[in-house]
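I'll show a sample.
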Amino acid sequence: MKKIPTIGFISAPAWFDPAPSEFSKVVVEEVSTQQAPLLLPEFDYRLKSITSVQNELNLCARSLKASGCDLVAQVGSPFAWANATSEAEARSRNKAMMTSAHVPTLMTGLAIVDGLRALGITKVAVNCTYYESDWRDGFSAFLRLCGFNTIHVSTLADQGLIAPSAKMADYGWPMTPKLASKSILAVAEASPDAEAIVVTGAGTRTLDILAHMEVQTKRPIIAADTILYWAIARELDLTLLPVMGSLSNLT
């Protein structure tokens, strides 16, 4: 009997992560999931702080391996790119987890890069949704380091959808499908020449709107939540369901 693959998710600190329960809804095959949140309940989410949690990431990966996981997937893109000065530096963070746990590991920020490359995309519009300016600038700089032409970059505040003074704590985790859809459409309208739209912020959940938004924008949407699911499916040779939009046809 073929073994049911078990995916371990490293979840961001002090956040209710939908990924461990959501992943089984995007693949044909039966899977099981496990979760290990970063145990940092008072985490301040500054980029400098995110850069400092490698030991905690390694420990979570080891714990998930010890729980029987076949693969470990880290949720939240900044943990790969925060303050990284090169793509190699970002990938070294993933390698550190993999070496520590002796199990394949994936990071959301790197899955975005790999997904764009698998699609042959070079010219992107970047929707940073609820990010504040330092996160917006850091993420777009990382994409440029990886060789992408970021022809448009904006946040909810830049798009005029929230107050300029709003903070991630106000518009991060409570992102609604309606607000996410408005934001994606605003970026699509502002960047007609972009080959794809990147949507970052793991609190911006796109699974229920992904296929519809791709039809409306007429472009692939590479979003932080769903691109990690694609990366997991590719690593474990799983079959993605149509709800995953253009990613379901991407091997």
User: Anything to note?
Assistant: The longest helix spans residues 87-101. The radius of gyration is 17 Å. The chain is about 40% helix and 15% strand.
